[in-house]
Amino acid sequence: MSDSDTDEENVIRYGTPLEPYEEDEVPAKRKFQEPADQYAVDAHGRRRFHGAFTGGFSAGYGNTVGTPEGWAPATFKSSRSDKATISSQRPEDFMDDEDRDEFGIAPRQLETHREFSGQKRQRRQFFDGPIPGEPVLEQLVRAVHDTAAVRMLRAMGWREGQGTGERLAKAEKKRAKEQHKVYGCYVPPEMRNENPTQEDKDSSDSEIVYDTLFAPDDYEPYILQRKNDRFGLGYSGLSRHSVLGNLVGEYGDAGTSKSHLTMKEKGKKVSIRGQAFGVGAFEADDDDIYATEDMSHYDFTLGGPAKDKPKKVNAKTNNVLNGFVKSSVPLPSVPSYPPPALPRDYTPAPAGSRRSRFEPIKEAPRDQGLGRHELTAETRGALLGETPVPKTTIVPETIPVQSDPIAKIVGRNVNFVSNTEKKTELDFIPIKDSGKEIQKVFKPFVGDPLKQARYERYLKNKDAILESDSNIDRLCEWERDRELAEFEQAAKLYKPLTGIMEERFTHAAEPDDAVNPLCAVAKSTNNYGLATPEQIEAARIGAFGTMTRKETSWRPESLVCKRFNVPEPGTTRDEPKKDDKPKVSYSIFSYLESSVHDKESFTKEQTKFSGSKSLSIDTVTKSKQAITEKKKDSIEETTSQTSVNTGFSKRMTVAELFLKESEKDLKNNEQNVVTETINKFDKMDLYKSIFLSDSENEEEALKETNTKDINDFIEKPKNVERNTSPPRGIFANIDFDELNSWKRNADDKIAETKTVNVTTPTNKTTDNEKCKEHTPETNEDGNVYGPKIPDNLKKRLEDNNTIVNDFKPIYRNKEERDIDSSSESDSWVEAKEIKSKKDKKKKSKKHKSKHKKSKHKKKDR
Amino acid sequence: MTELELSNLVTIKCKQQVVRAVRFNIDGSYCLTCGADKKIKLWNPHRQLLLKTYGGHANEVLDAAGSCDSSHIVSCSADKSVILWDVATGQPVRRYRGHASTVTCVKFNEESTMAVSGSVDNTVAFWDVVSRRQEPVQVLKDAKDTITSIQVTNNEILTCSIDCHVRLYDIRVGKMISDYIGKMVTFGSITHDGQCYVLSCADSTIMLFDKDSGELLNTFSGHESRDYLLENAINEKDSLIISGSASGEILYYDLISSKCVKKLIHNLNKPVISISHHPTDSYMLSASEDEIKLWGTRLMEMEQ
């Protein structure tokens, strides 16, 4: 048993064993088959054959008809209309798909395209024409039909009769010829029986040394000769057609290249290989004529006699093993990999020494790869040939602007950055500076120093330029207005980078000592962030609340809202982001364009466009009128805002009042008065925009009907820069002045509110009051277009109607107005506001007390 | 006034070098300590049990918060990253690297679907915890200096900044209210009734502001802030305001009278920077150096 076990272990089986037969079972010759298995079915599982009677092949759908529905008689369909589309019928149209199968009657199979098959060469045809051979015409006119391989070879530079590759000298070419490719074992050159005479001949030929290069030889295909005799392999009998021929054998081998008449034993004997009868006429020795046929005469080896070759080899190669050949080509040298170059300041750490972890770590060298990192700013500058900037604090000399040659040549709008900048500021940022004011003043008006000075003053205090301009008489009002707008634009445009960046950063309160980060830092006390001086003041006295509070719209991301389970706030109204975008694009070109206009061109334009009536007015008053028009504009707008439906006539009357006013002023001191009125009107606009109520407007409207006829005389404000050709097409019936006046004046008013904010008196309490007063006003700005003024406000306005009436400039002379603008308006506002404030305080107190109560309650619990 | 008979119930040595923040979890049964050793530890402070240590930050952990279902922790660190942790496995689930500088504070929203973090880079970032999004959903760049603390209610986010402003973002209205405080605000918390916020200022005062009007309601002083970013807390009944102090004391102020009603001594002259009040009970946790202490009444402890 154990033996058998070990036997089984030792046997390695392949495949699956057959089922062992039961001893008494006789193996059936044929396996039993289910009847279903006996039917031949096609690919679709249909019965392929129906037996002889039912006939042949399956056909149609389910062996019945061509459709799953069964047989249906086809309705007649005329093919007359689509004759063109019907092609001739082909036999395939009548075949089943089985017929096209591999075993069908019209099998289809994949074939290599003729172009790629390489089979395109036509069989030689025999032509029976009068001229034997291939017809010449056919040779000439041959379809260019190369195989892909030939085309590729052509592309590589192959020509018929020429090889591909580099051009060679003749010697090289010959050498290349010698080492042709051999498949399998290669007979070493020493062993090859070469024909020295031939070589010599060649060399003698090549004595005429050509410098010319030749194309390499074409590849000669090794074509197997078809064997058409019945001799043994390698045996070639005497060929019939070359008995005496010293032919080069078909096999290209040295042995066979010899003639059939071989010399044996150095010319003693010439034996003829092969079977022949008789002796040739050229044979001198006729001893062996009647030699009997002997098997020894037969050549049993493939190729020629190679008996003496090994001897040669042995003689030649002494220290080479038999069967081996000394290589002629030296072994390729082993590539050597040099060790990597060490970094410049590498200091080898001895393997034994271990660094303690408390040892100071050498600071890692910065990027060593490029030498330029090691250069300091000074060395770089020296390399570039720059003169170093003197670091000593020089008193900043003010270079006169006119001395700048570029500014002289190019004009005023070129030099954007002032060159009078203090150089000492470049080294560090002053710490004490709160960062509020813009350091570098951009100088867009450098060509006009006076204007630049005005611009700078404007930047410092936005409305100071209105009041205290020393050389005010040098500019007409309209020009100043224009310039203001220009300044406004410029201030927006030429906000330096620091100005933009400071919105994101605050100044460091302490100097940043980069060398020693652990040095003691003095406690910073004043960090105002973005707080305005008013806010700081309010916080100082503890008046927290509306003063210190600032509300801005903020749009949470929709995903944030989703995650916080809060409906998105911005879904109903439009995005505030869009509102932030300025409606006017402040491009540099628009700015340049506007500044190009000067006084002359402007007046010219005005006289051209303003119509016939204004021409009658004196040119001195014209400029004045421009201002009044502008004012009128703003007033127009305010009134139209408060009461949209009162309409055109009323607005014009308000303008009329201003005209009167201005005319009155003409009699007085001209320029100063105008500025005053402007200021006053500014304020008035503001107040009116806040407090003008519907009732008052009605009052006004009554009066204004009286002065309606004068209105026709007065010009409507015009945009002089506009194309004045009459509107055409769909714009023909639209009054653009009407439309534009709304938008423009809205902007004006915002600017005005700003200026008022800044110029409020420094008195703290009034300041507070004012701000309180202004904040609701600005809030209402947004609601002006809304349905109505809140009830409480209306009531207040009604209460103070008399005071409001006092503001109307028509009824009063100048002295009255002065008093009014200085004291009355303020006091009036204050009184009201105090009242409201009190209310508020009460409310808040109530709230607070309530709050406290609740707290107490809680506590008592 | 039983609640003021507080005593030190438990003292735990965290062995975290310095505990930067200590936070109760949502129901007050566990607490998290953020250490300068770059690790967060989860404790049961009542039983002095260390439950888990979460390691993965590359620098000091400055704040942490537990999710509403206590399945996740979000933490922020001086390595500029915010990490969301799985509580059970202790593995970081997500690591958010949106901030440009040290992240000082982090909070979950009410449903723990979003984490809000504030950083020294002056920004507040909203991180969507639910999705796999790696970028912040929204970044608030209004502050001009370091964000010191964040509070998140169901629809509001209160951010306190060194730039002396407190900003309240109302998601429901889509409005940002910024209040100028005039002092650097080191910590802000919102009362449980949501009406006031309590701001710890750098000049050793705590200010109570009305949320709606922005008016100052009360000022509390008596503690000492020195240069520390002290935290404050409000007790569960909104009646007391608690503050740590650089002197090692913990001061209880009455919200109405602004008087100091209780002084607890954690460890004299070792600043108590982080404190956390139990959401429903009068337990309070304070951290000083690597020691946290649980304060409460003995009676309560007996009940438990």
TrEMBL record, chain A:
Residues 1-34, 61-99, 335-359, 758-793, 810-861 are annotated as: Disordered. PROSITE patterns: G_PATCH (PS50174). Residues 145-167 form the G-patch domain. Pfam families: DUF1604 (PF07713), HTH_TGH (PF26093). Residues 766-777 have a biased composition (Basic and acidic residues). Residues 837-861 have a biased composition (Basic residues). Transmembrane segments: none annotated. One of its GO terms (molecular function) is RNA binding. One of its GO terms (cellular component) is nucleus. One of its GO terms (biological process) is mRNA processing. Belongs to the GPATCH1 family. This is G patch domain-containing protein 1-like.
UniProtKB/TrEMBL annotation, chain B:
Keywords: Cytoplasm, Repeat, WD repeat. The keyword Cytoplasm applies. WD repeats lie at residues 12-44, 54-95, 96-137. GO terms for biological process: mRNA splicing, via spliceosome. InterPro entries: WD40/YVTN_repeat-like_dom_sf, WD40_PAC1, WD40_repeat_CS, WD40_repeat_dom_sf, WD40_rpt, WD_repeat_MORG1. The keyword Repeat applies. CDD domains: WD40. It is found in: Cytoplasm. One of its GO terms (cellular component) is cytoplasm. It comes from the Eukaryota. Its main location: cytoplasm. Belongs to the WD repeat MORG1 family. PANTHER family: WD REPEAT DOMAIN-CONTAINING PROTEIN 83, WD40 REPEAT PROTEIN. This is WD repeat domain-containing protein 83.
